[in-house]
Every structure is written in C-alpha cells, then in structure tokens.
Write a structure and sequence with these properties.
- The protein is an alpha+beta fold.
- The protein contains four helices and 15 strands.
- The chain starts with a helix and ends in a 9-residue tail after the last strand.
C-alpha cells in the first residue's frame, strides 16, 4: 500500500522527531541515568571513640565504646530508675469494656486496651461503663547526657541501632506505695486484688528499655554529636 503525500510527510516528521529525541537524551546521559544501577550504601569509617576528628564532619562513622549517661532514665511517677539504659519506655494497658458492631448488631466484652475507650458511645451503656480516663498513661523517659567516648549520642540513633528490649521488674525496686498498689506477675505490674481475674479499671504496666554498655554504632558526625543517618545525607 502506498502512502499519500501528506501521510508520508507526517510519518517522516514523526521518525525525525523520535531520532532527535533519542540523540538528545543520549547526549545528556539520559540513557545512562536510566540504566545506571543504584549507588551502594556508603561504608562507615571506623574512628576512635576517644577523640572527635573534625576531618570526619558530616561523614558516616563507626564508633565502638561504652555508652554512659550523666543521668539514667527514670519513671518519676512510679519511682523506677533504669540505671544501665539510655531510654526507658512504660507501656500501660487498662482492663475495659469494648464494643464491637457488625451490621448493626453490637456486643460488649471486657479486655485489655492501651487506649482509653469512651463507653458513653456504646449502644448499650448499662453495666458497661469504663473509668473516665486512663489513670496512668504510656510514656517514654530519656536519659540525660548520653555519651559514647568523646561523642554525644543522639537518642534516635540509640533507638535505631540498639533497639528496645524487655526490662525486668524486681520487687526490690518498688516503693512501699507502689508495692501496696501493684503486684508483679509475668514481668509486669498488675493492679487490683486478683491479678488472675482482672476487673474493669485494673492496670497492666510493662517496661522496655534501650540498654547502654558496650556497643558499636554507625552514625553521622555533626560536631561532637553522633546522629541518626536515616535523618541526614552523609558526605561521601
């Protein structure tokens, strides 16, 4: 089939534009960028924890040493101190009425919840009332003056690199008031008269911590600080 004059000119114009685009993109390195493999993650430079070298400013460095604090994290409300940690987290749950509705049919049952549940919104409120608030809330407590050698250690980096672990609770740590209000069961504090049969309003408290001590951390050097690399762009 032979193309008419206008159709033939249109086809030639399209081909010319396509060839021009390929040449321009190629000259500008477009194909190279398209086909280029992602750059490997930067490798941390191992440095001494004893001194901070200004030459490494903005770079990803690896520091090995002992993590120490000026003041360890403390739950001031319950009087519990995590002496060998940099972060202490208190997780609180309350035994409450909970409502579940499916296709207009609602049922109520008791269970543990980390969030306060407003029972005034229940379809059936009689006999299903929760306390007006959480008497104790989940909270995080950070140590002050965290160091690994000569470096000041950012909390976010410690959490990202080390992570949280379960923090045991010892009876000797509890004050007289706390011991009178809570019992220890399965590594958690439980309020109420019978920990095995909780009632609405009872609390369950667990602790987690980011431990200190010997560690190897990779972070971005910013002056004397060691920061989380995920929040910054290291210098190559």
């Amino acid at each position: 089939m032979r193309l008419k004059g206008k159709e033939s000119m249109g086809l030639l114009t399209f081909v010319a534009v396509l060839v021009f685009a390929i040449v321009v993109i190629g000259n500008r390195g477009g194909w190279n960028r398209f086909l280029k493999m992602p750059e490997p993650a930067p490798v941390a430079t191992s440095v001494s924890s004893k001194t901070v070298d200004a030459e490494n400013e903005g770079r990803l460095v690896s520091v090995q040493g002992q993590i120490v604090t000026d003041h360890p994290p403390e739950d001031t409300e319950l009087g519990l101190v995590a002496k060998n940690a940099v972060v202490l987290a208190r997780d609180v749950e309350m035994y409450q009425w909970q409502e579940r509705c499916i296709e207009g049919v609602c049922t109520q049952r008791e269970g543990w919840s980390a969030e306060w549940i407003d029972s005034s919104r229940f379809s059936e409120q009689i006999g299903h009332r929760n306390p007006d608030r959480m008497p104790l809330e989940s909270k995080r407590f950070d140590a002050e003056g965290i160091h690994i050698g000569a470096f000041q250690l950012d909390i976010d980096l410690a959490i990202a690199e080390i992570g949280f672990v379960s923090r045991p609770i010892e009876a000797a740590e509890l004050s007289a008031n706390l011991a009178a209000s809570f019992s220890i069961s399965d590594n958690q504090l439980l309020s109420g008269n019978d920990p095995t049969h909780p009632v609405v309003g009872d609390l369950r408290v667990r602790y987690r911590e980011v431990p200190g001590g010997a560690a190897t951390l990779d972070g971005i050097q910013k002056s004397t600080r060691l920061t989380d690399p995920s929040a910054t762009h290291p210098t190559k």
